[in-house]
Write a structure and sequence with these properties.
- Keywords: Glutamine amidotransferase, Hydrolase.
- Pathway: Amino-acid biosynthesis; ergothioneine biosynthesis.
- Its EC number is 3.5.1.118.
- By secondary structure, the protein is an alpha+beta fold.
- It has a single domain, classed as Aminohydrolase, N-terminal nucleophile (Ntn) domain (Glutamine Phosphoribosylpyrophosphate, subunit 1, domain 1, 4-Layer Sandwich), CATH 3.60.20.
- The protein contains 6 helices and 14 strands.
- A 7-stranded antiparallel β-sheet has the order 3-2-4-1-10-9-11. Strands 5-6-7-8-12-13-14 form a 7-stranded antiparallel β-sheet, with helices on one face.
- A hairpin with a 2-residue loop joins strand 5 and strand 6.
- The protein is globular, with a radius of gyration of 17 Å.
- The two termini are 31 Å apart.
Length: 266
C-alpha cells in the first residue's frame, strides 16, 4: 500500500533520514523488504518538515515516483530539520487527485500519513459522513480513503483531543464501520509522534544520543529496531516510546487495552 516514516531528534539534513540509509524510504519506493500489500510505491510521495521557530510545517509533494524527481536530491541535501514525516505511495484505487492524494496531509501544526486501505471504500464509511461538518467534507484535499480518515482525525484534534487519543479513537471508529481495514496511521506536531499498528508493519528506533524514528520498516540493519505489535498505539517523544494495546471492535473476544508500556532506551 505504501511506506512512511517520522523522525524527531537532533537537526540533520533530511536526506540522511530519507535517502542515505541502505534501506531508506527512498529505496523502499521500489524495493521494500517488509511490505505485505503491493510491491512498488510509485504513485506519489511527500515530505514534510519543520523549520526552527515555525510551528507550521513545510511540505513537498509530487504525483510521480520519488526516484524520478530531480529536485529532491538538492532539497534533501540542504534542508535540515529536527522533525520530519515522509511517505511513498502505492495507490489502492486509481484516481485523478494526483499530488493532492500523496501524504503527508497537513493542517495547522500537524503532518499526517496513512499506510493501509479502508475496506469497502467509499460505501463502508458512508455512515460517518454525518459526523463531519459540511465544510470539512467540501474541503477534502483528495477523494480517497486516506483524506477522509484525515478529516475524521482532524475534527477530533480541532475539538481539543490529544494526538494519541484522537488517533486511537479514529482508528477504532473506522475499524468498526469497515472491518478488515488496514489503518497504520502516523501523526506528528513537530514535538511528538503518534502512530498506530493496525494491519501492517510498524517499527521504531531509539537512536543513541537522542532521537526517535517510527517507520513502516527499518531503514537499516541496526539491531535496536523494535517491531510494534499489531493493534497498538505508539506515542513517542525524542527520548521515550510508549505502547498501548488497542481493542479491535470487530473481535468481541479481544482483551481490553492494558496500561501503556514504556519502552526503555538502549
Amino acid at each position: 500500500m505504501c511506506r512512511h516514516l517520522a523522525y524527531l531528534g537532533p537537526e540533520e539534513p533530511i536526506g540522511s533520514i530519507l535517502v542515505r540509509p541502505p534501506h531508506s524510504l527512498y529505496r523502499q519506493s521500489w524495493a521494500p523488504r517488509r511490505q505485505r500489500y503491493g510491491t512498488v510505491n510509485a504513485d506519489g510521495f511527500g515530505v514534510g518538515w519543520y523549520a526552527e521557530g515555525d510551528p507550521v510545517p513545510a511540505r513537498y509533494r509530487r504525483a510521480g515516483p520519488i526516484w524520478a524527481d530531480q529536485s529532491l536530491a538538492d532539497l534533501a541535501r540542504v534542508v535540515r530539520s529536527e522533525a520530519v514525516l515522509a511517505a511513498v505511495r502505492d495507490a489502492t484505487l486509481s484516481g485523478a487527485d494526483a499530488e493532492a492524494a500523496a501524504a503527508p496531509y497537513t493542517a495547522g501544526p500537524w503532518l499526517f500519513s496513512h499506510n493501509g486501505a479502508v475496506k469497502g471504500w467509499p460505501g463502508s464509511l458512508g455512515p460517518l459522513v454525518q459526523t463531519l461538518p459540511a465544510v470539512d467534507l467540501l474541503s477534502l484535499e483528495a477523494r480517497n480513503d486516506s483524506a477522509f480518515v484525515w478529516a475524521l482525525l482532524l475534527a477530533r484534534l480541532r475539538g481539543g483531543d490529544q494526538e494519541g487519543q484522537a488517533l486511537a479513537d479514529t482508528v477504532l471508529e473506522v475499524a468498526e464501520a469497515a472491518p478488515g481495514s488496514r489503518l497504520n496511521l502516523l501523526l506528528t506536531n513537530g514535538e511528538a509522534i503518534a502512530a498506530t499498528a493496525w494491519g501492517d508493519t510498524l517499527w521504531y528506533l531509539s537512536r543513541p544520543g537522542g532521537g526517535t524514528v517510527v517507520a513502516s520498516e527499518p531503514y537499516d540493519d541496526d539491531p535496536h529496531w523494535q517491531e510494534v505489535p499489531d493493534r497498538t498505539l505508539l506515542a513517542a517523544s525524542r527520548t521515550d516510546v510508549l505502547l498501548t494495546p488497542l481493542k479491535d471492535p470487530s473481535d468481541p473476544l479481544a482483551p481490553a487495552p492494558s496500561a501503556p508500556s514504556k519502552e526503555p532506551r538502549t
